[in-house]
Write a structure and sequence with these properties.
337 residues, alpha+beta, 5-stranded mixed beta sheet, 10 strands, 52% helix, lipid biosynthesis, EC 2.7.7.41
Amino acid sequence: MAGLADALRQFPPVAHAFAYGSSVFRQEGAPVSKDRMVDYILVVDCPLKWHTANLQRNTHHYASYLRSLGPSAVTAVAENIGVGVHFNSYVPWNQQILKYGVVSKETVLRDLREWTSLYIAGRLHKPVAHLVEDPDLLVANAGNLRTAATCALLLLPECFTEAELFHTICGLSYSGDVRMGIAEDQRKVHRIAQGSQEPLRALYADVLAGPPAVRAALEFEEDSGARRFLQDTSPGARTEMIASLPVGMLAPLARLAGTSGLVAGSAGSEAAVDPGRAWEVGDRVAHSPQCKELILGALQCVVAASSRRQAVSGALAAGSGNAMRYLAAKVSKAWKT
């Protein structure tokens, strides 16, 4: 990880950082490009202060109009238009091309705990290379992984393979993404799951022995090298699993299932869920013949909204030249597959 971490030296200090994507983890069959970017997420305590310092150090990383408007404009575009993440793309460094997103720790923690956008939480469903570690974020991400496993189990049948489990987990944050089918590789989820089998096993080893597995009465068997699972898909088991989902999923589920009054109030900066109402939503969805469709619909509600916002924010952050260059590269990559 030392090589990946070296790039962080050019930036002001960060609370947490990770690298991700096909330049870090192999994706089976992915087209190779000399312009492939190395992707980073930088989690900071205060984006305004961080961008103020970074604009002094790395002015050329930003679109020209944002340099003129200053750090307040950078953070305003990210937080008021997007989902809180500002990206600088096509940054040359040490014979590499970097793309880095900057986001507040508060925003990341809320997404990990509540699935407010699944923008960062979804990236962390897949293996990443953690370069700087924040203890609060790691604890919250453990819960995020449990939620990802729970959601995947709800979308899977009674009997399924390990490959199907990991494919479902990797696909959660792409459900409803406005980029899919236009500027994203249609086989991207398959490539991530196939190319990261061992890292995925390591990432979810504890999770698949924890609460999600207990609620689903998960059983594991290995036959001739094939890893298979059995789970309890009864309404009783599924009610408990659905009720354990975070508010970001339960709120759209409540609307789709025809219930209301789910969010009871606020606990600090986080939405609080009335346990009784969560159980009511879980019970109604679990007993519905469209249980899987309702879960998938709730996922699509979350991802579609956040991906639309971030697409606009990303284009504004990149400026017209880089935005067109990035879109052209994405479309070219998608059409080659």
